[in-house]
DUF2089 family protein (Bombilactobacillus apium), 111 residues
Amino acid sequence: MSPWYIELSDDDLEFIRNFVALSGSLKKVAELYGISYPTVRIRLDGIIRKLNAVEEREKDPFLVKVMRLATDGAITLSIAREIIEIYEEEEVVKSKAEMTTNSEGDKSKDE
């Protein structure tokens, strides 16, 4: 299992720390930050989405390896985040190129 915190910023981690320290009370967190309850809920939902994204990444062996390196202290979390970001950008480009190639192949079959 990769570290659940890999996608979380330092601010997110601090928010979670405060949330736990305040016994999970969104009302108390809102008071601490001086923001509204709905704003705290939105922030928490964003963190939950990031945690769910980590679960999806656990299916990719390369990303699992990067996350393990960060957990083991071989690389920093910020370096791990940067590697993951670059890797995912390249995956998007590769995916778009494959879709273009496939759609061009479909067009030639129609002719």
